[in-house]
Write a structure and sequence with these properties.
This protein folds into 3 domains: 106 residues, Dipeptide-binding Protein, Domain 1 (Dipeptide-binding Protein, domain 1, Alpha-Beta Complex); 127 residues, 3-Layer(aba) Sandwich (D-Maltodextrin-Binding Protein, domain 2); 205 residues, Dipeptide-binding Protein, domain 3 (Roll). It is α+β, with helices and mostly antiparallel strands. The model has no long low-confidence stretch (mean pLDDT 94). Helix 6 runs antiparallel to helix 8, helix 7 packs antiparallel against helix 9 and helix 12 packs antiparallel against helix 13. The protein has 14 helices and 24 strands.
């Protein structure tokens, strides 16, 4: 296969997930306690139970019996504790943000070889879903130079930003479990998953080169097919397209700690100036769904009734009231997604009609994610669907490295609602609180989210088993390569 999306710092360390290729590799090398299916349904994985007490401040995790690591070690409770310890101690661990406000590293009790009880710092009614967004379990003493996991494939070799090779793990714990929906499911006589002996993924960031590799038969499948490339694939009989709606999003964020974005009227004027239908057509050729600045469309409590439509007169009025009309603004755009730069251009052009003066400065990913990433005044970022708005909020606007830099009053109110939700174990009541959080983001937040793009992959018809849904937007059916097979 060939994948795009490398960022220049790829790794096999599952605590440092930072790009599409790394996400694929981690998905196939390592296992999780729980996960979201390709249609964003919460499911238990290596845990047979994840349960809380009535207050939501104590959780018990019980592992399935007999799960084996690639080195022959049996997964046990010590590995859960070690994984948390490593997450909290490893510099740059991307998964720590969603845990550190409530996980007490002194609160672990090993009840038996397969069971751990965790006493949290404070209630967290959605802790189980936090475990389902990427959180890979590694064995005690894990060495990233010789990575060992419980996934369907085991490590063979890896060249950063170029290629990684995995080989079939014959003792994969979930080889006969339910597979993700596919238009070409594997024949029953193929036996347990994974079906292929070796998985070779080449990193090809250039879109044209990646398509050419598929067309010429150098690879069997590619991801991140550009919408303009769809006709090229469709006219070749041996190639098949796989397109799925997603909850992934590329957002333009406004730094609310700096003028003029410290004025909510400016933020709302900018949001109201955007022609979302035009952005959908111009940036995605219609391959997606219009969004209204609120993420996680498949999450519990998502308020589909909150919509925002272009209103230039209202945008002009708000901007005039703020006294910021015509003030020069620089929007720093980089290729975090195929649509990021064009999306910024559409916004700049639309906003000019309301009196904004926006210049788009295009930079490479190294510059975008460099030292200024957390202090840009006006820039872009991309997120896959997390499956839960509470988890996403902890990772974004309530994290210590948030990009919108909410003002103290707004952040305090959001934090209060978040804490209420975490104390609420009744799902319906928690959804009501989640809606209030969404309302706050809708009224005063710093994100502009124009649409949810479809993800398009392509594969040669000599292969089958590809998952047809990828609501998380991670491409290649969330890297479910264990169910892919070769025909004939």
């Amino acid at each position: 296969m060939a994948t795009g999306g490398a960022k220049g710092s790829d790794t096999v360390d599952p605590m440092l997930l930072n790009s599409v290729p790394v996400s694929f590799m981690a998905r196939n090398l390592y296992g999780q306690l729980a996960d979201f299916s390709n249609d964003m349904k919460y499911t238990l994985q290596m845990a047979e139970a994840i349960e809380s007490n009535a207050a939501g401040d104590e959780w018990t995790i019980r592992l399935r019996q007999g799960i084996e690591f690639h080195n022959g070690k049996t997964l046990d409770a010590d590995d859960i504790v070690f994984t948390f310890q490593r997450t909290f101690s490893l510099p740059g661990a991307v998964t720590v943000g969603k845990f550190k406000t409530f996980v007490d590293m002194g609160g672990f009790t090993k009840l038996d070889a397969r069971t751990v009880r965790m006493k949290l710092l404070r209630p967290s009614s959605t802790f189980h879903t936090t475990l389902a967004s990427p959180f890979k379990i590694v064995p005690v003493g894990f060495d990233p130079n010789n990575p060992v996991g419980t996934g369907p494939f085991r490590y063979k070799n890896f060249t950063p930003n170029r290629q990684w090779v995995l080989e079939r793990f014959g003792n994969y714990w979930n080889g006969t479990g339910p597979a993700q929906d596919s238009d070409t499911p594997a024949p029953a006589d193929l036996g347990p998953r994974p079906y292929v002996d070796e998985l070779v993924v080449n990193v090809v960031n250039d879109d044209s080169a990646r398509l050419n590799a598929l067309v010429t038969g150098q690879v069997d499948a590619i991801n991140l097919v550009q919408y303009a490339q769809i006709p090229t694939v469709a006219q070749r009989g041996e190639l098949k397209l796989l397109e799925s709606k997603t909850g992934a999003w590329t957002g333009i964020y406004m730094n609310m700690a700096t003028p003029p974005f410290n004025d909510v009227r400016v933020r709302q004027a900018l949001r109201l100036s955007l022609d979302r239908e035009q952005a959908l057509q111009s940036c995605l050729s219609g391959h997606g769904v219009v969004a209204h600045d609120l993420p996680e469309p498949f999450a519990p409590g998502y308020p589909a009734e909150l919509t925002r439509h272009r209103d230039i007169e209202q945008a002009k009025s708000l901007l005039k009231q703020s006294g910021q009309a015509g003030v020069p603004l620089e929007l720093v755009a980089g290729p975090v997604s195929t649509e990021a730069v064009s999306m910024c251009t559409v916004l700049a052009n639309n906003a000019a009609e309301a009196g904004f003066n926006i210049k788009v400065r295009q930079v490479d990913t190294g510059t975008l994610f460099g030292p200024n990433f957390h202090s840009w005044q006006f820039s872009v970022d991309k997120w896959p669907a997390q499956g839960d708005f509470q988890t996403l909020t902890a990772l974004t606007d309530l994290s210590s490295s948030d990009l919108t830099h909410m003002d103290a009053a707004t952040r305090s109110e959001l934090q209060s609602l978040y804490e209420q939700a975490q104390h609420t174990t009744d799902p319906a009541k928690r959804d009501d609180i989640t809606k209030q959080m969404y309302q706050l983001e809708f009224d005063r937040g710093g994100w502009i989210i124009p649409f949810f793009p479809n993800v398009v992959n392509a594969y040669n018809e000599k292969t089958g088993g590809w998952p047809k849904n990828d609501f998380g937007g991670r491409t290649f059916g969330n890297g479910q390569f264990e169910q892919v097979y070769l025909k004939g």
